[in-house]
Amino acid sequence: MGGPRREARSVDRVAYTRHYELDKAHFWREGKRELVLRHVRAELGDREGAALVDIGGACSVVTQELGDLGDLLVLEPDAEIAAQARAQLGVRVELGALPDALPLADGSVDLVTLLDVLEHIDDDAASLATIRRLLRPGGLLVLTVPAYAWLWSEHDEALHHKRRYTQGELRRLLEAAGFEVERMTYYTSLLLPLIAAQRALQRLRPRSGPPRYRVKVPSGAVNRALAWVMRAERWLLGRTDLPAGSAILALARRPR
């Protein structure tokens, strides 16, 4: 899916431990967090005690905020990152890995978040089928993935991505796993020309040594301006789906 599969490497904990700090201030990570939480809140409403599972997001502020919306369990495949998440986020974290090493009974979960995780997993199809089984009938999966193989760059390699997706590819995977797709839209759409130009320049520069995770919070004025662009995009996403972007949001439900 989304171009050739890439060689797997061991987890780069430096990149993952930086995510939590970036989540607090970086315009893109703040924008994704607000977009996801909007849909989770809309799904749960005033329901109390909903069983929520976040898979693979142990080093993110959005995971911490999900804990305020229901009975949250975080599943994380890396023991060191899981321990760090327990200390930093104060949420319940257990070891578990897709597609088949999850410590949960089938049909036991109301909502699953899988945020920028599927692209890391060798067997994405089997992983989605496992998540469908975990959900109760009518349960919801909130999923984000990076878009477009042509945006592949050192950033993807540093994060150990296996692939990027198009909407068509992701929809076919979800439907084959037994989901009903309720919404699918690209996002980070208004900034796509800027991102595409940046990735093209990266490919032109000679590189020595292993891929590095280079994301940092922009200067104050730039970060505020880009955050405003992301807020404007969320306003649009509240009214329509967007036809292109550097990432994809999907809402997929297990049929009742």
**Rounded Rg:** 17 Å
Please summarize the sheet with the most strands: 7 strands, mixed
What is the number of helices?
9
Strand order, main sheet: write it out. Answer: 3-2-1-4-5-7-6
Helix content: 40-55%
Which class best fits the helix and strand makeup?
alpha/beta
Strands, count: 7
The low-pLDDT segments are 1-11
Q: H/E element string?
A: HHEHEHEEHEHHEHHE
End-to-end separation in angstroms reads 28 Å
Strand content: 15-25%
Q: Please tell me the overall pLDDT.
A: 90
What coarse outline follows from CA principal-axis ratios? globular
Explain how this protein is built:
With 256 residues, this protein is α/β, with parallel strands linked by helices. It has 9 helices and 7 strands; from the N terminus they run H-H-E-H-E-H-E-E-H-E-H-H-E-H-H-E. The chain has helices at residues 13-23, 27-44, 61-66, 79-89, 124-134, 154-158, 167-176, 192-204, 220-237; strands at 51-55, 71-76, 92-95, 109-115, 135-146, 180-187, 247-253. Strands 3-2-1-4-5-7-6 form a 7-stranded mixed sheet, sandwiched between helices. Strand 2 (71-76), helix 4 and strand 3 form a beta-alpha-beta unit. Helix 2 runs parallel beside helix 9 (220-237).
Can you give keywords for this protein?
single chain; 256 residues; alpha/beta; 7-stranded mixed β-sheet; 9 helices; 7 strands; globular; disordered N terminus
